[in-house]
Every structure is written in structure tokens, then in C-alpha cells.
Amino acid sequence: MKNIVTIILLMMATLLSACGDSDGENGAVSLESSNLLLTASHGGKGAAWRLPDCSTCHAMEVIHKRAERIRNIVREKGYTTCTGCHGRNGSNESEPRQCSVCHNNNDLPHAPWLQGQHAHTFTVGETALLNDDQCVDCHVASDMDGVFELNRDLTGYADKTQRVSSYSSISEFCLRCHNRDHQQVGFEIIDRNFYDPLIAVEDAFHFIDQHGSVDGTGLRTYAGLRPGYKYRTVVACTDCHAMHGTDNTRLIIDSSQKGVTQLNASIREAAHSVTVNNGDYSQLCVLCHQMQVIVDDGDLETGNGLAGVHEVGSDCRTCHTHGEAIQAGL
Fold first, then answer.
1. N or C: less crowded end of the chain, CB within 10 Å?
2. What is the pLDDT of residues 5-28, one digit of tens each?
3. What does each C-alpha distance from 145 to 31, 35, 75 come to in angstroms?
């Protein structure tokens, strides 16, 4: 019996090599080359392109031998997992690629965090989980190697000059859509007031509130930052806004684990909660800000285990808003 199994596996390996298997020398899909999406060359000169049935060439028993993190998920859920990483191979292109079949709260719960009733669904105020279509709007051709790389893992969108130039930061990716005069076709942000942060944030970010680089000296009355953050260090949009899931409106993070990327890991991974009520953003601000000299009730605990910001319980927006030039940063 053992010999028979060995022969069968050898036959499968031969078949897969002929089709262009990712583990074979002739593969058109390679993690090393960051080319996971199938193209018209799939299968060696296109022999497998447009074939709708992955099992024609790829036997479940032998695929993904080097992808330990997802191998068991693929084996359990079968060929429905293929399209999220590899596209639809030129077949059934009208159907969405299935991303959440693997990226969900059970199988890959932290890649990314998906907990929370609000997510970047491209509809303001909508309460819904992300769906497969929305995943590929931002991540059309990720290499799925577990390392986030701006210009590999994010979709290339045109800049102000209408060129698909490289991103220099995660915030620059956000600003390709969130601006007043060069929004992306199909993702237009309409019916917005001229000063609405959804469209005003590009000008505010570059000229006023980069939240650190414009006039952050650390010498003001309420000076003081937690380890990891420094004045004049630009803070990314995603340090405060969770794209994939949060219980707060305006996509404000609801846990330190979902943002504040520069924060000391010992604080960030403690999962300090963030709840925003009636403009009171103190639980968000206190993740990074901690007064050096306690004044104005700055020692009052905000409700998530941290203290160090003033006017806890009041509406922060009275003085601090996106684009506010009088206050330093926001």
C-alpha cells in the first residue's frame, strides 16, 4: 500500500509540474517573486489560463507545502480558498474573489483585526462588516507574506498628477481618495462640506495637522508623550483610524492593538480600550499623550486604565479638530 501511495504522489507531482504548480520550477505563481495573482501565462505559456476548476491540476494533498500558516485552512475549506490570493484565473471574473474565507475572526483573527460594527465600507455611516469586494479595492495584489509593504500590499491609485506613483507612507495611500480635487473614479466622496475632514484632510495633513511635524516642540503647557512617540514625528492616519473593524464611529480605533503603531509594545499590546462619547476622545488621546507636569486634572483616569490628558469627560472638539491651526497638531 505504501508503494502505491508513493506512486500516486509522484504522478500528482508530475501533473502539477506540467501545469505550472507554485512549488515547481515552471510555476507562474511564486511567493519569492511576489506574483500571486494568476495571469494569462498560468500553466506554462497559458495552458491552464481560464480553467475554472483548480483541481484539474492542483491536488489538495500536495499544494501549499511551504505555506504552513494557511495550509490547514486550505485543506479544510477546499478550493474556495484559492481566489482570494490567486484571483479567478480569467474565469468567472464577475464573481468576487473570496478573501474572508480565510481572513476572518476564526481562521486568521489578527490578519487583520475584524472585530467591530464599523469598517471602511466606502459608505459613510454604514454599519456592516467588510465584504470580499471591498478587500480587493485596497489590496488587489498583496503578496500575502505576512509583512506589510506599502507598494506591494496596497492597490496603486493615481496621485494628484494622475500618475500611479509610489507611496511614501500609509497616509499618502489614504489621501489618494480623501481630497478635494483628485478623487478616484468609482470612489468619489460626494455631498461633502468644503471643510469636512473626509475631503479636507489632504490639505490639513500637508499644511496644518500632520500631528507632530508642523509645530510639535514638546514645550507647551500639556507637553508629554508616552514611549515610542516623539514630537515632530508624523502620525499615520491608521494610528487613530481602524480600517477593518471598530465599535467607534468615524473609524476611531476601539483598542490600542488596532492602531498607535509607534507606541511602546508593552503599552500597545495591553489592549487598552477606546470608547468615544459625545466628543470625548480622552481614551484615544491618552494612548500617546501623558503630561510631564500634571495640571488641570491631568491625573484623572480616563476609564481605560490610563491617565495624563486634561479635561477628561468634556468635548475635545471645542479646541481640537482636523485642520485646527491654532492648536498644535490636531
1. N
2. 444 444 444 444 444 444 443 344
3. 7, 11, 19
Parent domain of 221: 208-330
Q: Which helix (DSSP H) or strand (DSSP E) does residue 95 occupy?
A: none
Q: Which residues contact 173 (CB under 8 A, 6 or more apart)?
A: 138, 150, 154, 157, 167
Instruction: Report the distance separating Cα 202 and Cα 174, nearest Å.
Output: 9
Cβ of 255: how many Cβ atoms within 10 Å?
A: 22
E strand or H helix at 117, and its extent? none
Alpha-carbon gap, residue 57 to 278, rounded angstroms: 57
**End residue of a domain, out of 70, 86, 102:** 86
Phi, psi of 118 (to 5 degrees): -115, 140
How crowded is residue 12: how many other Cβ atoms within 10 Å of its Cβ? 17
Total tally of structural domains belonging to the chain: 2
Strands (E), the chain: none
**Residue 308 domain-assigned (yes or no):** yes
pLDDT of residue 327: 56
Residue 142 lies in a domain: no
Question: 255: which DSSP letter?
Answer: B
Residue where one domain finishes, among candidates 42, 59, 86: 86
